[in-house]
Amino acid sequence: MVARHKWLLLILLLAASLRVCHLGVESVWLDEAASVEIARDPPVDVVRDAAQDVHPPLYYLALHVWMRMMGDSERAVRSLSVLFSLLAVAALVAFAARWFDRQTALVAALLAAISPLQIAFAQEARMYALLTLTAMLSTDAFLCVLRDGTRRAMAGYVVVTAAMLYTHAYAGFVLAGQGLWLACALVASTNNRPRWWRRGLLAFGLAALAFLPWVPSFLSQLYGVERAFWIPPQATLAAAVEAQAGSSSLAWLLAPLAVIAVGMSLVRTRRDAREGNWSAAAVTLCAAIVTCVIGLPFMLSRVSSPIFLPKYTIAASLVFLAIVARGLVLLPSRLLRGGLILGLVVLTLVPLHAYFTTRHKDDWRDVVSSVERAAEPGDLIVFSQAFGLAPFHYYARRTDLVELPFLDRSEGLTARSLNAAAGVALAPFDRVWLVLSDPDATTDAVIRNLRGYGQAVDDVGGGVEARLFMREGAPRRRP
Fold it and tell me: DSSP alpha helices (H): ranges in 149-278?
């Protein structure tokens, strides 16, 4: 017992070390800057801003409180996700220990501690680590509700599930997985059918009631996504499985272990139910959640506006690792189990090395610094995309520059109106800085409107760049 606690402590320390390593090295990028911009507002405005975004407000509110205590540096704003990620690993340990055994809990903790997907989003000032935590807690609480049916279990489920729903829209697919499992369990079971049916419906109903105040905003967001959303339709199911595993090599190893766990659990379901053992139920519930979180948005994206993005499936990441850990522990050979665990650790080193040695985020910090060093008072800064304002403002310190955000295509700007607006806006300025991010057709239109200007400086950063254009005949000054 003491030895297992020591191993668990070492695994949690490993998880913490990997999540804080290089935490503030890279610049914030567009989405992170948007998180900070929203979270800087008072709570009432945070909720209003979130309603105009595509995500619910809980993460932004949590970040608002966190920034009041910790500041808004890169390391500070990302450290909240580190905290949520570590709590998620702890929640996975508690889940596996409760429904399986301590050995499965240790293996699951190790897999989560070194998971490339978990580490990447633990270092991102976005809501994905919180989504992972609340999805794991909701899954655990759901089984507690069905098994115990106590008010405490019901209250716990409603709180964590409401938190999940107020964190990300993919929470709905986690609920769909729970509902799918309950429907299948009710068909397969005769003894527990009335009891589970009442408890499950009550749990879903109370969680939905808690989410009711946000429903009008959610429907408005859903309508906006249906009209136009940025997600490309090319994402595949294989990409989602690879994201869950961390690499294609790991996917070929983890997926069969998950299949083994599910297959053995289906065989043992009836026997476990008679003996009061919930391990098979826990595995099949996790499998239902993984299926719905990955499969449902993929299918919906084929008949409607694309909403399937592999990183969003992080909602099912920990339950997937729980299945894998169970599959490992159920293997008959101790030598085989040890060899596979060692192989998983070794294979994980490759994507982890790539993650920690490769730049992943647009380098707004260096580009903004270069612009502010070279710009003259009164220079005009034009943004090819309106959302470039958020990361620029995160790093900008000067207030003597004029900013002009061009509307992007999602706001319905036509080439003709762009040309008219540009002609009026650019006329008073001899020096124009063009900040380019996420180039598209609108970007080309902005550049075309700089006719009569000569390019003097091109400061290229990682994923974003700033170009200085000077009106022909104006005095040139190279920084």
Answer: 151-165, 171-188, 193-211, 215-227, 237-245, 248-275
What tokens does 301 get?
């994206």
- Cα–Cα distance, 312 to 417 (Å, whole number): 36
**Is residue 37 within a helix (H) or strand (E), and if so which, with residue range?**
helix 30-39
**Sign of the alpha-carbon dihedral angle for 315, 319, 323, 328:** positive
**From CA 312, how far away is CA 294, in angstroms rounded?**
9
Residue 237 has pLDDT above 60, yes or no: yes
The percent of the chain in helix, strand and coil, each rounded to the nearest 5, is: 70, 5, 25
Give the closest residue to 154 by CA, choosing from 163, 162, 144, 166: 144
pLDDT at 417 over 60: no
pLDDT digits (tens, 9 = 90+) for 39-92: 999 999 999 999 988 899 999 999 999 999 999 999 999 999 999 999 999 999
Name the residue ranges covered by the structural domains of the chain.
Answer: 2-357, 364-471
155-169, 277-291, 364-378 — which one is most confidently predicted on average? 155-169
Contact 304, 289 (CB under 8 A): no
Query: Quick check: 278 and 143 in contact, CB under 8 A?
Result: yes
Instruction: Report yes or no: 51 and 97 within 8 Å, Cβ to Cβ.
Output: no
Please give the DSSP secondary-structure letter assigned to residue 72.
S
What is this structure's pTM?
A: 0.91
Pairing of strands 402-405, 380-383: parallel
Q: Kind and range of the H or E element at 189? A: none
Residues 6+ apart with CB under 8 A from 80: 62, 63, 66, 70, 125
